[in-house]
Specification:
alpha+beta; elongated
């Protein structure tokens, strides 16, 4: 019986030495979760906006966008990592934005990763909503354009 235990112990040590000890990066799981939550939120907002348009209504006014879209066209998305949802209408177009203080690195990575899931030129990650303010530092804003007149 002791010989079997010794063989198993040697085999286990050989696997640990040859394969190394692999640790799971906790930020990777957090980033994936945050990206999924933000993507789901943007999809919910876009769906509500497009449903309103399909019904013949124009885009809502910036001051009353939540009342114009919800609950008539769905449920509002949940907040993501302490960030908040907003909506804007300006000369450059109409957008939804997820913004707030940049407190953790996985938030920036998650929001930046969403650019691969959205059409080029319609999704920006900057310092302020509407795609302005330069690269994220201190605050972050992920803007998804519904209608964009200028890139």
């Amino acid at each position: 019986m002791n010989i079997i235990q010794a063989v198993l112990a040697v085999a286990l040590m050989a696997m640990a030495v040859a394969g190394g000890i692999q640790y799971v990066n906790p930020n990777a799981a957090t980033g994936t979760r945050l990206a999924s939550q933000a993507d789901a939120g943007f999809s919910t907002l876009e769906s509500a906006f497009r449903s309103r348009q399909a019904g013949g209504a124009t885009g809502p006014a910036a001051e009353a966008w939540q009342a114009a879209l919800f609950p008539a066209y769905g449920s509002p998305p949940a907040a993501v990592a302490g960030l908040s949802w907003s909506y804007g209408v300006e000369a450059a177009g109409v957008w939804f934005c997820l913004s707030g203080p940049l407190s953790r690195d996985p938030v920036k990575q998650a929001l930046t990763a969403l650019a691969t899931r959205r059409p080029q030129g319609l999704y920006d990650v900057t310092r302020s909503c509407g795609g302005g303010g330069g690269p994220p530092e201190g605050t972050i804003a992920a803007t998804l354009w519904m209608q964009r007149t200028t890139p």
